């Protein structure tokens, strides 16, 4: 199956990718392609938009119309593409720093508008491209090159942030939980509105090494052993959830979608030709 | 408003009408004085013609969304002033490097920082050229009145599409908030340029590879079945990142040359009373109107003065100003800043004649009498 | 000598001085004259000194701002005291009759008319003062025929206020014979 997926959705001349051995991003990128394939989307109507950072190199490997933009601005570029041509399926591949630090404002406002974008965050809890600085999702107490004494920041819960800001579909997957993550991305694409899938990756090179998390395999095992489904987590206490990773669908509801509302506005003022 | 051929409009309103006539169907921006009427009128007018307006969460997003819309094949514009122009710079550089046509209107106001938000200034001359980091091609054009704002907005889109580049419409508060009569010539009566698109999807996968005789490589909108890549990283003909110094050099040279080798098409200017002039005043945008007022008086007093008005600010009309410097005894550069265009004029003139700067940095306009005094002084 | 006429309208933000200048400019434009209108203002939406300018000419207008006003309308004492200082030697000054004529106005033709009172009492709405002023100014300066001025007003007022504003125009006209 994998080879057909690669034939169809990847630019083989651009592979192998630049990610480190053991990086979870390759798996997550494949998950995105698998979700597109499962939905049977017309690949000519799929646009991949990325920002800057390790995650955002994904755009260059995927065989669609792809645009690798500026740091933090992927969602804003995507907003322009989607509003200009609402018939396109616009998927944003971004990272934790790209989406939640430098691009945090675009993220929350895209959620507020409920514009039909699917935001897939390759969340490795660190700035990888620049060599291991702490990010908005680095757990408190963890280390980074800019947190040499341990990170005193509190971290973002990205699906909760997106939900609070108005997103209509949120969930969390991991590099380990492939079928579940593919399904979440599929549901995100199907949702007519802003969907955010927080995809917890593994970064053995920086985050893992800095925080003594062991090898890539050890980090994946940790994801396997500590993941708790959101439905089960709902009945667990804060104490029980300590050190656990809540995954699965977190929120889904229907609300008016921005580009559809704008089309209505055009019709109302007589601008539809 | 648009059904009328003649109307009394503000510069900012005329800009929107010109943009729509040029085919703008997307505007993304953020409100900021004194450019806000451009956003307001875009919000009002675009849906009437089937276009889209979006008020973004910030200036950076305003620039980014406009580039996104253009990538999707829709002519797009954003507008800003003062601090907003600073915030847009990174993505202006992206549009320049990725060669995405778009129009950025900067209605200059008094700075630095928040400055005097409602007062005029022309102190973004150098920022319009060098505001974003790195060597990059850029075009900036500056209108002196409301009619010219309409016409130049059309031209800004045409240049953007023709040269695949961001074009800055460098307005100022004087012109943005000035109301004058304007003829809203319909699109059918004007030259409207649309970007060239590849018919062959295979060829379209190389959006940065130029064929012999082309001005710029053609570009196909997203969603047309091509499947190509765009990046702000140094890229090859296919649009994929490269670390090759040779490829980078060739790509940079091609990008810079598309402007530098087409100055005859891009550079426009106005000459007023220069035939017998001994003193030339170089001025642009709203400040040029003060110079025109001064020239009327100077001529009455027998001072042989004229004006050279660059309409294209960047690339600067070097050849024309050099020739002017050979003809006149003295050049005065009248601008609402501390000598930004003066620097460029001095560089170009290279000592062929004396160059004086006459400026304002207090948020007021140059008065014709102040220019007249300077003309008297250098004519002695 | 010159057909150029420079008008300056000054008052307090919220008095509608800018709109008055736009309407006068519109009327001049409709009457096929060359016109340039501009304003300067501070950050306040209401209150604060507000100045609007209209330049009217039979020929193309070069400098678009007022250098020495041929006509000054002042609706507040503060704006009168400030702008009286640089009017043209033969300028016409129109002031609200509640204002005190400053020394600097000596030698000018001063038209003192109850613009604010007329709006509040005869028209019945204080906010129509700018339309009353527009009519008074046009009577004094003959910028455009009455019917053209009416069209200019109608082009710039909210729907539903036509009757009120036409009444303001009529009352304003009566102020200057």
Can you walk through the features of this model?
The complex is a heterotrimer of chains A (273), B (380) and C (177). Chain A has 273 residues and is α/β, with parallel strands linked by helices. Helix content of chain A is 41%, strand content 17%. Chain A has an eight-stranded mixed sheet with strand order 2-1-3-4-6-5-8-7, sandwiched between helices. In chain A, helix 8 links the parallel strand 5 (169-174) and strand 6 (195-200). In chain A, helix 2 packs across helix 8, helix 5 packs across helix 6 (104-113) and helix 6 crosses helix 7 (158-165). Chain B has two domains: 6-189, Rossmann fold (3-Layer(aba) Sandwich); 269-379, Rossmann fold, CATH 3.40.50.920. Chain B is built from 14 helices and 16 strands. In chain B, the strands form three sheets. In chain B, strands 2, 3, 4, 5, 6, 7, 8 and 14 form an eight-stranded mixed sheet that branches. Chain B has a five-stranded mixed sheet with strand order 11-13-12-15-16, with helices on both faces. In chain B, helix 1 (11-22) runs parallel beside helix 6, helix 3 (59-71) packs parallel to helix 4 and helix 11 (287-300) crosses helix 14 (368-379). Chain B starts with 5 loop residues before the first strand and ends with a helix. Chain C has 177 residues and is of the alpha/beta class. Chain C has one domain: 3-Layer(aba) Sandwich (Pyruvate-ferredoxin Oxidoreductase, domain 3), CATH 3.40.920.10. Chain C has helices at residues 17-30, 77-83, 115-123, 129-141, 146-154, 162-175; strands at 5-12, 34-40, 49-57, 69-74, 87-96, 109-113. In chain C, a hairpin with an 8-residue loop joins strand 2 (34-40) and strand 3. In chain C, helix 3 (115-123) packs across helix 4, helix 3 (115-123) crosses helix 6 (162-175) and helix 4 packs across helix 6. Chain A binds chain B through residues 11, 14, 43-45, 47, 49, 59-60, 63-70, 72-73, 76-85, 87-88, 105-106, 108-109, 262, 265-266, 268-273, and chain B through 25-26, 28, 46-52, 54, 56-58, 60-61, 64-74, 76, 90-91, 94, 221-233, 240-241. Strand 9 (179-183) of chain B pairs antiparallel with strand 2 (34-40) of chain C, so a sheet runs across the interface.
């Amino acid at each position: 199956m994998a080879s057909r997926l690669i034939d169809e959705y990847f630019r083989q001349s651009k592979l192998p990718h630049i990610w480190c051995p053991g990086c979870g991003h390759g798996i997550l990128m494949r998950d995105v392609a698998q979700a597109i394939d499962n939905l049977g989307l017309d690949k000519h109507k799929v646009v991949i938009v990325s920002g800057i950072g390790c995650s955002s190199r994904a755009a260059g490997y995927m065989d669609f119309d792809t645009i690798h933009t500026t740091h933090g601005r992927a969602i804003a570029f995507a907003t322009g593409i989607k509003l200009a041509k609402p018939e396109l399926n616009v998927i944003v591949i971004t990272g934790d720093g790209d989406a939640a630090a430098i691009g945090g404002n675009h993220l929350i406002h895209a959620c507020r508008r409920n514009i039909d974008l699917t935001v897939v965050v390759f969340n490795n809890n660190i700035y990888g491209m620049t060599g291991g600085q702490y990010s908005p999702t680095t757990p408190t107490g963890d280390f980074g090159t800019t947190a040499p004494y341990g990170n005193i920041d509190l971290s973002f819960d990205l699906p909760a942030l997106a939900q609070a800001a108005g997103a209509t579909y949120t969930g969390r997957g991991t590099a380990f939980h492939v079928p579940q993550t593919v399904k979440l991305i599929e549901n995100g694409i199907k949702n007519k509105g802003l969907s955010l899938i927080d995809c917890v990756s593994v970064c053995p090179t920086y985050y893992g090494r800095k925080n003594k998390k062991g090898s890539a395999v050890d980090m994946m095992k940790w994801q396997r052993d500590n993941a708790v489904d959101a439905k089960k987590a709902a009945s667990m206490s804060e104490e029980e959830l300590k050190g656990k990773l809540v995954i699965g669908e977190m929120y889904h509801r229907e609300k008016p979608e921005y580009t559809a509302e704008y089309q209505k506005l055009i019709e109302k003022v007589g601008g539809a030709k | 408003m648009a059904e009328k051929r003649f109307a009394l409009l503000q510069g900012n309103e005329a800009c929107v009408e010109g943009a729509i006539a040029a085919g703008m169907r997307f505007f993304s921006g953020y409100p900021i004085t004194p450019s806000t009427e451009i956003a307001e009128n875009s919000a009002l007018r675009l849906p009437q013609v089937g276009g889209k307006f979006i008020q973004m969460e910030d200036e950076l997003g305003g620039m980014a969304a406009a580039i996104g819309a253009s990538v999707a094949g829709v002519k797009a514009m954003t507008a800003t002033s003062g601090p907003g122009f600073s915030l847009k710079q990174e993505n202006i550089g992206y549009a320049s490097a990725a060669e995405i046509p778009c129009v950025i209107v900067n209605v200059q106001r008094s700075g630095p920082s928040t400055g005097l938000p409602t007062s005029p200034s022309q102190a973004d001359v150098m920022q319009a050229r060098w505001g974003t980091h790195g060597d990059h091609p850029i075009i900036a054009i500056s209108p002196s009145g409301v009619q010219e704002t309409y016409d130049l907005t059309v031209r800004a889109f045409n240049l953007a599409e023709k040269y695949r580049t961001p074009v800055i419409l460098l307005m100022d508060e004087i012109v943005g908030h000035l109301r004058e009569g304007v003829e809203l010539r319909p699109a059918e009566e004007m030259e409207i340029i649309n970007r060239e698109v590849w018919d062959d999807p295979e060829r379209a996968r190389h959006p940065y590879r130029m064929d012999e005789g082309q001005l710029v490589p053609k570009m196909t909108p997203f969603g047309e079945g091509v499947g190509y890549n765009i990046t702000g990283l140094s890229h090859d003909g296919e649009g994929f990142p490269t670390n090759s110094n040779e490829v980078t050099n060739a790509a940079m040279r091609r990008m810079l040359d598309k402007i530098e080798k087409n100055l005859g098409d891009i550079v426009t200017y106005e000459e007023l009373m220069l035939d017998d002039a001994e003193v030339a005043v170089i001025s642009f945008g709203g400040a040029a109107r003060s110079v025109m007022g001064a020239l009327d008086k100077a001529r009455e007093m027998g001072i042989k003065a004229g004006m050279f008005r660059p309409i294209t600010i960047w690339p600067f009309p070097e050849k024309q100003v050099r020739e002017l410097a050979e003809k006149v005894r003295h050049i005065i550069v009248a601008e609402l800043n501390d000598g930004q265009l003066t620097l460029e004029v001095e560089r170009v003139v290279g000592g062929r004649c004396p160059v004086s700067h006459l400026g304002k940095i207090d948020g007021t306009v140059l008065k014709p009498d102040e220019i007249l005094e300077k003309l008297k002084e250098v004519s002695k | 000598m010159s057909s150029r006429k420079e008008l300056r309208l000054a008052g307090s933000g919220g008095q509608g001085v800018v709109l008055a200048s736009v309407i006068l400019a519109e009327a001049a434009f409709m009457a096929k004259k060359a016109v340039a209108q501009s304003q300067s203002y501070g950050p306040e939406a209401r209150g604060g000194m507000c100045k609007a300018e209209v330049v009217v000419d039979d020929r193309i207008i070069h400098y678009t701002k007022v250098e020495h006003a041929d006509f000054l309308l002042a609706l507040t004492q503060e704006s009168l005291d400030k702008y009286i200082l640089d009017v043209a030697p033969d300028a016409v000054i129109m002031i609200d009759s509640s204002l005190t004529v400053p020394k600097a106005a000596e030698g000018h033709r001063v038209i003192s008319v109850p613009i604010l009172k007329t709006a509040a009492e005869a028209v019945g709405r204080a906010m129509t003062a700018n339309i009353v002023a527009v009519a008074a100014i046009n009577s004094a300066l003959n910028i455009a025929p009455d019917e053209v001025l009416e069209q200019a007003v109608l082009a710039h007022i909210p729907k539903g206020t036509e009757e009120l504003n036409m009444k303001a125009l009529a009352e304003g006209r009566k102020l200057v014979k």
